[in-house]
Design a protein that fits this description.
heterodimer, A: 5-stranded mixed sheet, 8 helices, 31% helix, B: 37% helix
């Protein structure tokens, strides 16, 4: 392959006045991914360059970033698929930069924790397991492919406007449990989602569906949570949800 | 100084399983160098074994048969009682995981579905499509959220502190803060995973450098059976991303450049579903004979399974092939080659996960109980992480309840933290020298060349000589960047030191063991030697290098016989 220019956003809040781009000339190998190019640039040119990575096969969720203006997992983006000779790499927006391409994910994890993201079955473990129809399990499969990479949270215009909004990943995770026949959570467990900064906060612009690298379509989950909330209201019209 | 009753290092399946079984009355925390969900357990695909008998072809299965398959697969090096614990506890463990929310695929009756896997007499591998590791890790993490487990995310442990045979705690580098921290704990569990990235070709995540194993060894805990390294037969060429054994379990064929299912020559009965050591050697032999493609790989053909089955049972594999090789397995055979995948050896622990050091425990891939012996069966690693992670949490909790906190721990830990800082400052002050990333690459090439699928004394000795040169070069390694926060160069600088130690134990262990058993194939000693080698290799750290002792394998029920598949 020919040499390319990689414009990488650099920022160390402890010493830099502000974020800035640094350009590196680098010649990627033919089948290289953007993550491999980043590693080579770090190893050969600037070992102080920081970015997150782990599995390099699009399943751990570490390396979501913005590549030539598009949300992508660096490990799954082939350099050869990028048009032109300049590749611009930026950290995820909507989150504070901790260093270079590493952002502070705490707001994202907090939203995740806030929806009670765990199965709430009734009773003790059945001695020979739960009985679940395969077709019911398959409806859950759409959502369990989520790798919590934070692309959707980062791309969501509602999060930009209101950081209290739970964001797409957390709501889709909640819906994964609402769809699970084993889950028997009480209505009170939905209180956080049943609020203007919960499922009702979504603007239906579907940026989350567009940027999701795993085709989770989080907006389906948000819509599903809304219907579940309405259904529970209709079943118990006089009960307060909180 | 942070003080805990119990610290668990590693946020993969074994670590989280330990956190969930620890006594809730104790002050427990998990320390992980990445967010727990980024741990390599997430990449496991095919499944987890338990003799549930849910598949119509598995009605006659039992945990005893599972234990037999495990022992035979191990080439009789596994400790048989430990293997029985693993297989017996597998059954209630599956139901507990189900109750915690693991979205297992289901049978027509709504029970947990099971598929055939290599080296197993019955279809006993439970799965969630081909994303089993991901759903298990996410589910255990969800349970940790439910219980409010404390996490120190993105903290790299830099040393384990042991004095007079007792564990005192840890020193760690907090990446986000850029600080060296001391953590005092009465008990420590290592669940730090494998070391795949000591090799050039590996299915493992980039983060699997294995420093945890080297750290325990340096601190005085022996390592066991480190010469046994598993090479997975089917890894996507050329990126070495794992293509699950389930692809063969669902009926995939291995085919050479003459269009022939060559496993007929190596394992006429089990064919593609022979254990991994046998299939990996078969592929390597085919390529060496000129029956491969581009002298590098053979084909894994799934086309006859049909679009629907591939889409339903192997969606992750389809996605990987499309994105990383530009082909769809529905229409095109997958180019595959063997690559390093798993470590059977590890930190020496017994079946309660206790090491010879008071207060120090280990579980999962970093440990060696041993249940996998000389070769692990597919579907047994997730199981080991879940079952022995849980045992480790219980054993460590009992230890904390039954012993007094060691005196003078604080002074020792602060002293160790200061020595760590001094050492890093010394490295930082070097103005020129060796680039650490390039040293890492040299180590990987060395290990792949000398301790791969086929080994011999000459190559192993050459590897040891080259390793000695690398040690010299490491003394001159320096840090280019001046950042203190998220300094990944510093992370590798610390980890590399331990990696050289564990590489030496692998090479020396492979040289000592002059026989062939399971994954360890010596071309100069191609026969198994039960007279001399039905024993574990134990390596203890000394200034001059590893010192080896040997321990006889516990054989009671299953007498060693020739492994035929």
């Amino acid at each position: 392959m020919i040499a390319m220019t990689f414009r990488i956003l650099r920022y160390d809040p402890l010493r830099d006045a502000g974020p800035h781009f640094q350009a590196f000339r680098h010649e990627p190998k033919p089948m290289d991914t953007v993550l491999e190019a980043l590693k080579d640039i770090r190893d050969q040119q600037d070992p102080s360059l920081s970015f997150r990575y782990s599995c390099r096969e699009a399943v751990c969720g570490s390396c979501a970033m913005v590549i030539n203006g598009r949300f992508a997992l660096a490990c799954r983006t082939m350099v050869a698929s990028l048009p032109g000779e300049i590749c611009t790499i930026e950290p995820l927006p909507n989150l504070e930069i901790q260093k270079d391409l590493i952002v502070d994910l705490e707001p994202f994890w907090k939203a995740y924790r806030d929806v009670q993201p765990y199965l709430q079955p009734e009773g003790e473990t059945p001695p020979d397991g739960h009985r679940v129809e395969e077709r019911d399990m398959e409806t859950v499969f759409q959502y369990i492919t989520c790798i919590l990479c934070a692309s959707c949270y980062s791309a969501c215009p509602v999060v930009t406007r209101d950081p209290r909004y739970l964001g797409p990943a957390a709501l889709a995770k909640l819906y994964r449990f609402l769809k699970d026949p084993r889950d028997k959570r009480p209505d009170a467990a939905l209180a956080r989602a049943d609020s203007p900064t919960g499922a009702w906060g979504c603007d239906n612009v579907y940026r989350c569906n567009e940027v999701c690298p795993k085709d989770v379509r989080p907006a389906d989950g948000i819509g599903g949570v809304r219907w579940a909330l309405i259904r529970r209201r209709l079943m118990h019209p006089f009960r307060r949800m909180t | 100084m942070l003080t805990h009753d119990l610290l668990i290092v590693g946020g993969g399946l074994a670590g989280l399983s330990a956190a969930l079984s620890a006594d809730p009355g104790l002050k427990v925390a998990v320390v992980s160098k990445v967010y727990p969900l980024r741990s390599h357990s997430v990449a496991a695909q095919g499944g987890i074994n338990a003799a549930l008998g849910n598949n119509p072809d598995g009605r006659d299965d039992s945990w005893e048969k599972h234990a037999f398959d495990t022992v035979k697969g191990s080439d009789y090096l596994a400790d048989q009682r430990a293997a029985e614990i693993l297989c017996q506890k597998a059954i209630p463990a599956m139901y507990e995981l189900d109750h915690w929310g693991v979205p297992f695929s289901r049978t027509d009756e709504g029970k947990i579905a099971q598929r055939p896997f290599g080296g197993a007499g019955f279809p006993r591998t439970c799965y969630a499509a081909d994303r089993t590791g991901q759903v298990l890790l996410h589910t255990l993490f969800e349970q940790c959220v439910r219980r409010g487990v404390t996490f120190y995310d993105e903290w790299l442990v830099t040393s384990l502190v042991i004095r007079d045979g007792t564990c005192l705690g840890l020193i760690a580098y907090d990446l986000a803060a850029g600080k060296i921290m001391s953590l005092r704990a009465q008990a420590v569990i290592f669940a730090t995973g494998g070391y795949g990235r000591v090799f050039q070709r590996s299915t493992n995540a980039y983060i699997n450098l294995g420093s945890g194993i080297g750290m325990a060894y340096r601190a005085g805990v022996p390592l066991k059976d480190m010469e046994f390294v598993q090479f997975h037969p089917t890894c996507l060429y050329p990126k070495n991303i794992l293509i699950t054994e389930a692809a063969r379990g669902e009926g995939g064929y291995l085919v050479n450049n003459q269009g022939r299912r060559f496993m007929a020559d190596y394992a006429p009965t089990a064919m593609e579903l022979a254990p991994r050591d046998i299939v990996a050697r078969a592929i390597q032999t085919e390529v060496a004979k000129g029956n491969g493609f581009d002298n590098e790989y053979v084909h894994l053909d799934l086309r006859h399974l049909g679009r629907e089955k591939i889409h339903k049972r192997l969606p992750g594999i389809q996605e990987i092939c499309i994105h990383f090789a530009g082909l769809d397995p529905v229409d095109t055979p997958i180019p595959i080659q063997p690559a390093q995948h798993y470590s059977m050896g590890g930190i020496d622990v017994d079946a309660t996960c206790a090491s010879p050091v008071a207060g120090f425990f280990a579980a999962g891939e970093c440990s060696c109980v041993s249940v996998h012996g000389a070769n692990r069966l597919g579907g047994n690693s997730l199981l080991e992480a879940v079952v022995f992670g849980k045992i480790a949490g219980e054993t460590a909790s009992r230890y904390v309840r039954g012993s007094a906190a060691p005196a003078a721990a604080e002074r020792e830990l602060l002293g160790e933290a200061q020595r760590t800082v001094d050492r890093l400052v010394r490295i930082r002050n070097r103005q020129a020298g060796e680039n650490i990333w390039q040293l890492l690459n040299r180590l990987k090439i060395l290990m792949s060349r000398s301790a791969g699928i086929f080994r011999d004394g000459k190559a192993l000795r050459a590897g040891l000589e080259e390793l000695a040169e690398l040690r010299e070069a490491y003394r001159r390694a320096f840090i280019v960047g001046t950042c203190v926060r998220y300094c990944q160069e510093l992370v590798v600088m610390v980890e590399f030191d331990y990696m050289m130690d564990l590489a030496e134990v692998i090479l020396r262990g492979a040289l000592e063991r002059d026989e062939t058993r399971g994954s360890h194939f010596r071309t100069d000693f191609p026969k198994r030697d039960d007279e001399r080698w039905l024993r574990h290799t134990l390596a203890g750290w000394t200034e001059r290098g590893p010192e080896f002792t040997f321990r006889t394998v516990n054989v009671d029920k299953y007498k060693p016989q020739e492994r035929k598949y």
